[in-house]
TrEMBL record:
InterPro entries documented for this protein: F-box-like_dom_sf, F-box_dom, LRR_dom_sf
Organism: Rhizophagus irregularis (strain DAOM 197198w)
SUPFAM superfamilies linked: F-box domain, RNI-like
Biological classification of the source: Eukaryota, Fungi, Fungi incertae sedis, Mucoromycota, Glomeromycotina
Pfam families: F-box-like
Name recorded for this polypeptide: F-box domain-containing protein
CDD domains: F-box_SF
Top-rank taxon: Eukaryota
F-box domain segment(s): 24-68
Gene3D superfamilies: Ribonuclease Inhibitor
Length: 529
């Protein structure tokens, strides 16, 4: 019998081939495609898990590389149930004994996928919160008392410790690790098993050998962690250390020296000896691009002239921030003034008043940047820094972002003059340092001087009447889309911004502000184009 549909078979075959081949893209191609999903787009990636094994593994790599980061605390707590399956039989048995009613229903079989092998980023604080929430859901029927709370804290620490062991058992190869417990109620002094010491566990020599970013913060001694990691990690690119807390500066210095390509270093609240730490940066002179010191106490002894010599050798530095540091004097800053930071793009200094302010040194840093500076922050007493605005106007024609403390009309005039040379500014901030500065006519003059490129303006350090505010906005260019200012709970200031926006066919994004009977003292208003 002759086939009455000669093309049907061919079409069906082609369709079969099409259906067969399209889901089976190479894993490398799938990984590239999935990388365009937002990391927290769990819904879309979850759908990809259901296509076939290859798609499942490629999507799982993204979903499970930082699972505690893309989930809510409640959802993160369920991750603990998954990782519980990777615990040793002995540890499972021990925990089942501790919480017999809450954990008895958990499976003892390992998952089909080794989720540990996908793990790339772990944040101790988020893991600890997830475990704490997980235990709460498993012990809802337990009577609450001080003894129960004590046992729950001890059990949380045990589980977090065990998670640390499997995270560093060699299956995972972490890129980023955060052991930051600042602003967190966990107290390592109450922890008998020291669950913060993940880098000291036996498998860490493999799991942390590829680490690129390390954050460690909190009021605890970090010596053991730094000593262990100095042996393991050689390619840290981003390092953040917060709170000295009796940590040995020599150990931190040795850890820095052990790195081959440190790019970004942040040090916060360091009150111990700091000379050796900053001197160790000499080893990173070729690679270091970002340096931030926050609330550090610098020495005033005979070694102060040596303090920044190591940093001064970092010729590729692009960002230098010295914020709320003590004893930042002329002699201290001299090595930086003599350095050549020709690639410096961001320079921020926020310092207390000292008897010998580094006026000449700051000017020299700006001059030596050779027009590369585009972001400058001067949260200082400008009266002590003569001609600093003139220096910026002369040597920073490409300036895009400026933050400067203004407390006198003469300083406002210097700022106005600056805009004759810096005509590409995108953001202007006048923050508060000690007190609000009341302005009238000079604010209106500032409005006439602002460049047409300006998009954002924040005047947190100024005080003015609504009449002055209206005159100011009448003079401003129509390019501004972001305002932050002191309205002192008066809605008329916001209505004046609305009027400004209408003049340039813009509307307020947060329109509900217009109908509120009460406003905070300080407000932020954004406009739609």
């Amino acid at each position: 019998m002759t086939d009455q549909h000669p093309f049907k078979r061919t079409t069906d075959v082609n369709k079969s081939k099409e259906v067969h081949y399209s889901p089976y893209l190479p894993p490398e191609t799938l990984g590239e495609i999935f990388s365009f999903f937002a990391d927290d787009d769990v819904k879309s990636l979850h759908s990809c898990l259901l296509v076939n094994k290859t798609w499942c593994e490629s999507a799982a790599f993204i979903l499970w590389k930082r699972p505690f980061d893309i989930s809510s605390i409640m959802a993160s707590s369920e991750l603990v149930s998954v990782y519980f399956l990777f615990f040793s039989d002995e540890k499972k048995k021990s925990l089942l004994t501790s919480v017999p009613n809450g954990l008895s229903h958990l499976s003892s079989d390992r998952p089909a996928l080794n989720y540990l092998s996908y793990l790339k980023y772990v944040d101790f604080k988020k893991v600890y919160k997830a475990v704490r929430m997980w235990l709460r859901t498993k012990t809802l029927l337990e009577p609450f008392c001080s003894e129960f709370k004590r046992r729950q804290i001890a059990l949380t620490n045990r589980i977090v410790t065990e998670l640390g062991r499997i995270f560093t058992a060699g299956y995972a190869r972490l890129d980023r690790l955060s052991l930051d417990i600042r602003y967190f109620e966990y107290n390592p002094k109450d922890d008998e098993v020291d669950c913060l010491s993940w880098p000291c566990y036996p498998g860490a020599c493999v799991s942390l050998s590829d680490l690129r970013e390390f954050l460690c913060g909190g009021q605890f001694m970090k010596n053991r962690i730094l000593l262990s990691m100095a042996e393991i990690c050689k390619d840290i690119e981003i390092l953040s250390i917060h709170e000295s807390a009796e940590t040995s500066p020599e150990m931190l210095a040795e850890f820095i020296k052990a790195q081959r390509r440190l790019i970004k270093f942040t040090l916060t609240n360091w009150s111990s000896e700091i000379l050796e730490i900053l001197s160790s940066l000499r080893k990173q002179a070729r690679t270091l691009k970002y340096m931030e010191l926050i609330r550090c106490i610098f020495p005033r002894n005979e070694d102060y002239t040596k303090l920044f010599r190591g940093l001064a050798e970092c010729r590729n530095l692009q960002t230098l921030k010295l914020e709320q540091c003590q004893h930042l004097s002329t002699k201290l800053m001299k090595p930086l003034a003599e350095a050549s930071f020709e690639k410096l793009q961001t320079f921020i200094i926020d310092t207390e008043a000292v008897s010998d302010p580094p006026t000449t040194e700051i000017k020299a840093i700006i001059q030596n940047s050779r027009e590369s500076l585009i972001n400058i922050g001067l949260n200082v007493n400008l009266s002590l820094y003569a001609d600093i605005m003139e220096t910026i106007a002369t040597f920073c024609p490409n300036l895009l972002n400026l933050s400067v403390t203004i407390e006198r009309d003469s300083e406002m005039q210097q700022l106005i003059t600056l805009f004759r040379s810096c005509t590409n500014l995108v953001e202007l901030k006048i923050p508060k340092k000690w007190k609000l500065f009341e302005v009238k006519k000079s604010l209106v003059e500032l409005g006439t001087a602002l460049p047409s490129t300006l998009k954002r303006i924040e005047l947190d350090g100024l005080k003015f009447s609504h009449e002055t505010w209206e005159e100011f906005l009448d003079m401003c260019p129509g390019s501004i889309n972001h305002f932050a200012f002191n309205c002192f709970s008066k809605s008329i200031f916001v209505k004046i911004v609305e009027k400004y926006g209408k003049r340039y066919s813009k509307s307020i994004k947060n329109e509900e502000m217009l109908d509120q009977t009460w406003l905070p003292v300080q407000v932020t208003v954004d406009l739609n184009n």
